[in-house]
UniProtKB/TrEMBL annotation:
GO terms for biological process: antibiotic biosynthetic process. It comes from Pseudomonas vancouverensis. Residues 301-410 form the Erythromycin biosynthesis protein CIII-like C-terminal domain. This is Glycosyl transferase family 1. One of its GO terms (molecular function) is hexosyltransferase activity. The lineage of its organism: Bacteria, Pseudomonadati, Pseudomonadota, Gammaproteobacteria, Pseudomonadales.
Length: 424
């Protein structure tokens, strides 16, 4: 009998990457493979909920998993004041420090990851991260780069700089951002290059912390928002998935004491955005004045909301694909999973980004006519009521989004990814 293929998926410690990989793992399992998850200790339990084996990376530092989680929570809390800055200002205040912290995590994980991969002996490794791990490159099996951030993560002359939130047509803004970014991250890049060299791995290009896989690279970017590239990507090595949405049980919409027959809107800013409880409370105050129903994801901070408006339902966790299937519009931070899932279910987006590739997806949504970009540095709460009214009334946009949705759902990106991985 043919040996069952063992596919090790290693997403970064974020819900976007983790849930994206769960969708791929569901399709891999359906095709007869055995997908397993390598994870950071404080992410244990999430993958087991979907029926997958978990292999946490052993900690080599004296910090416990809870203390590691607290370290990242403190990092986010310290970063909240920078979420209202422009992407250009965030380079020095948030982006460069974030790269330093991410590199610390990669260095700490390297030896335990080498040992774990030697024990697992996977047939293929799928890496959904923003940073390279030499242990994966040197594991002796094919590895896959999963680009679950915005397509801007793969540089091209006709694609805006990663994390910039500018349009490709604005060459002056692109050049200004690139110059400042390369200068700010140079110390982190040099430190990371030394780490790679010490583990027999070539350095990444300037400003980058992850190289393309020589075997296979998977991109979430849906067709309606894909960029025209100056250098076309080789379709044998780069596969566009048109989104990648996991399967969830149906969601039962709760009863709302007020506006129970009004359009249903889902709001989620991811785990990072939920930490900004001051912004979330101001946002909920605005929602309470609007003639719609709102489902609001407040993450691990549910206990901080003592009063809730009658047209708002709060929870610490929603099975997002199941919820979006019931909604009319999605307010989010521009995370790539959220951006793709909005398109997958034919929903217009109102994007209020606070960091990272949320800026890129927000600008692209506005540019391609699939949503509105409300920058946090330009009073988004004042602009929100009119944006919601406009998008909900835009019949032409809704028809376009419905056509996009039908095409994406017919593509079945999770199956496409699983087939490409098994073809290795």
């Amino acid at each position: 009998m043919q040996k069952q293929k063992l596919i090790a998926l290693f997403p970064e410690a974020s819900f976007g990457a983790a849930l994206n990989c769960i969708g791929i793992a569901q399709s891999l399992r359906a095709l007869g493979a055995k997908p397993v998850f390598i994870c950071h200790e404080h992410f244990q339990g999430l993958f087991a909920e979907y029926g997958f084996d978990e292999y946490p990376i052993p900690q080599v530092s004296p910090l416990s998993a809870a203390e590691h989680q607290h370290y990242w929570e403190r990092f986010i809390e310290r970063s909240i004041p920078y979420f209202d800055q422009t992407p250009l200002a965030q380079i020095d205040s948030y982006v460069a420090p974030a790269w330093e912290a991410i590199i610390d995590t990669a260095i700490e994980a390297e030896k335990p990851l080498q040992q774990l991969l030697t024990r697992l002996k996977p047939d293929v490794i799928v890496l959904d991260n923003v940073v390279l791990f030499p242990a994966i490159v040197n594991a002796g099996c094919p590895w896959v780069r999963m680009v679950s951030c915005a397509e801007t993560e793969l540089p091209d002359a006709r694609v805006p700089p990663y994390l910039s939130g500018v349009l490709a047509s604005d060459s002056e803004a692109c050049a200004r951002y690139t110059e400042q970014y390369l200068k700010a991250v140079k110390p982190a890049h040099e430190r990371f290059s030394q780490f790679l060299a010490s583990n027999g791995t070539p350095p990444c290009p300037p400003g980058q912390f992850l190289t393309d896989s020589p075997y296979l690279n998977l991109l979430l970017s849906p067709t309606p928002v894909r960029y025209e590239r100056e250098q076309a990507l080789d379709p044998q090595r780069y596969v566009y998935l048109d989104g990648c949405v996991r399967r969830e049980a149906p969601y039962i919409v709760p009863h709302f004491p007020r506006h129970n027959d009004a359009p249903l809107i889902y709001l989620s800013f991811g785990s990072l955005g939920a930490a900004d409880t001051g912004m979330m409370k101001r946002l909920i105050d605005t929602l309470s004045t609007l003639p719609y129903r709102f489902l609001v994801n407040v993450g691990a901070y549910r206990d901080m909301y003592t009063t809730v408006p009658d047209n708002v339902y709060l929870d610490s966790w929603f099975a997002q694909p199941a919820v979006l299937k019931e909604c009319d519009l999605f307010i989010h931070h521009g995370g790539n999973n959220s951006f793709c899932e909005a398109l997958y279910f034919g929903l217009p987006s109102v994007i209020i980004p606070y960091c990272w590739d949320g800026h890129d997806n927000a600008a692209r949504a506005e540019e391609t006519g699939v949503g509105r970009y409300l920058p946090r540095f330009a009073d988004p709460l004042a602009a929100l009521p009119a944006a919601l009214e406009q998008l909900l009334a835009d019949q032409a946009m809704q028809q376009r989004l419905q056509a996009f949705s039908e095409r994406m759902q017919a593509t079945r990106g999770t199956d496409l990814a699983a087939q490409a991985i098994l073809a290795l």
